[in-house]
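Reader question, answered in our methods column.
A reader sent in the components of a multi-part assembly and asked whether the whole thing could be modeled at once rather than chain by chain. We filled in our standard form and ran it. Here is what they sent:
COMPLEX SIZE: two components
ENTRIES:
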Amino acid sequence: MNAILIAVALLGTIGAASAAILYLVGQKFKVIEDPLIEQVEDILPGANCGGCGFPGCRGFASAVVRAETMDGLFCPVGGQETMDKIASLLGKTSPTTSKKIAVVRCNGTCEYRPQTSIYDGAPSCAIEAALYGGETDCFFGCLGLGDCVEACLFDAIHINPQTLLPEVNEDKCTACGACVKACPKDIIELRKQGPKSRRIFVSCVNEDKGAIARKACEVACIGCSKCVQVCAFDAITIKNNVAYIDDDKCRLCRKCVPVCPTNSIWELNFPPRKEKTSASPKEEIKKTV
Amino acid sequence: MLKTFRIGGIHPEANKLSAGKTIQSIEIPAEVSIPLAQHIGAPSQPVVKRGDKVKVGTLIGKSAGFVSANIHSSVSGTVKKIDKVVDISGYRRNAVIIGVEGDEWEDSIDRSETLIKECNLSQKEIIDKIASAGIVGMGGAMFPTHVKLMPPPGMKAEVLIINAVECEPYLTSDHQLMMEKTEEILVGTTILMKALNVSKAIIGIENNKKDAIDKFTQYATSYAGISIQPLKERYPQGGEKQLIDALIRRQVPSGELPISVGAVVQNVGTTFAVYEAVQKNKPLIERIVTITGKEVKNPCNVRSRIGISFQTLIDFAGGLPPTTGKIISGGPMMGKAVARTDIPVVKGISGILLIPLSEARRKAPRDCIRCAKCIHVCPMGLNPTLLMNLTEYTVWDRAEKNHITDCIECGSCRYTCPANRPLLDYIRLGKGKVMDIIKARKN
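And here is the structure of the entire assembly that came back:
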């Protein structure tokens, strides 16, 4: 009986002493954290994808709370809605940022871009790109081994088994930029999603001279600058033999699309064109060809 | 007991089909394209333009930095253009394309075959001459030779090692050069010893080249300080760090250069190029290339000018066999498969290997069975299977801690893996990534 009492008393004393020490240490070293950070983190989607440029959602939350204005801070996964919620919580104004989406700038399907060698190494675009230009004569195009698919946390990009090119699912893509970083050929770009998801882009990044590019791929941009001439808004520039459409300047007039001799400018989600009777006969011929 | 390195290593089938074949000269084609990036470091700056007349030995590309090298014309004729051509990297890079007219050499070059033993130049003069001749490591790494001859401050070379190992299967270019230019290589060695200010040089030769060992042992007696060391056949003995371990029993610490243990290693082909540059004023414009393969009609060793296309060389050896499945520049272990034959020969290409289709394709990889064979054969004492997994799952900090940057890319792990896992492919990728991370951290 005595032994039990001693044990209880001893353990009780140790417990009480430890509790006292813990309380004092806790008081002395306590970290005062802004409770807003917790609240902001709750609003965020919690994907921890790093698309905002911070290590995870908590990093972003503390940055938003600390920052004077919300300029330059944007959660691509949550989008404008989430940012507005955070802004009203913090009493700041959130800048309106247009939603972006990943765009694959290669159009060279097996049909247009004949295979000239066989790669049987490890199935990784990064490894293949370090060894040589790829299985076709286009050294800039998609290798089709799916490093971007591997990188996507949202199941938003997949290789189309027919074309062997990646395709972005517009509903799932959050524009976190993981695929952009994963692509060793810099083919994927984040572009403005545009009103009703309508957008125009040059679906090629081949920097070779026109003749070489055309020989390697039927739908390569040959840098002919026809699109530059037809653009009324100075949105198109040619750099290193390849055209680029600035999505800030582009007004989606679609004039550049039919003039491209290799069909490398793409328009997405537009209603079908009206059959223009006034179109010059030259253009008509080109279309049918 | 023959010497060899102490950790790991394999012994692939030698297949030296072109052994003992006399070096033949190859006819110069109508056009050559000389790449401006033929070395590790900054690509050279072109100093000629379209329409310029050049002779053999005219400077066409100027070294663009400390780690860079000069490039000279290997033919005489007119510069057609400076354009991008597909080179050994598998991408289009700048090259000088020259239309060949005759074979006129620069007057300063001594084209006679007479052996010049005397060299009265100072240390600095020798290094300057090597630098201006554009000599790079001809074993395959293509590292500018003059940089290796200038140890960083506080370090001193004690011994010069001449790498005459040629441990790659199939290749015989160094072996044949050693048989035909024995004395020139020995004079080249004394010149390199003078440039490094060392009194001792060791030439390491693998024991499958007995004729070369005998010939060198016989001639070396008249050259002070040079000794010949036969080595047991073992791959990758031609690796700098392995050769140092085999010959002087010193291990280069992780992340350090061979100079940190007092050794400088030069390839035997480089040594011959040094002889020609210093004694004959001849820049590096040609090299010995082995063209070989099991189904090649006439495996041979040729003296090829830089810039001649692979196709010309393959035609010389009897044409491309219809059953060819893979064309490899270099040897089967460390060489690189190329996708086309219009690639120009550069300073570091020691062989062109044509592998028949039956042997060319990789076998499908299976799951790792944890047999640890790759760990057993790794000559750097690394854990290849771990490094591959770390790269696959992008765990760069652990890859760095496990010394991924020490990998010499010899491919022993890939060779020995019973599950055909692409170990080296991933390790090479991870090594590059980790090196970039380290570089970014330093800046």
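What stands out: The CA atoms of residues 196 and 269 of chain A lie 8 Å apart. Chain A touches chain B through 15 residues (CB under 8 Å).
Send us your own complexes using the same form.
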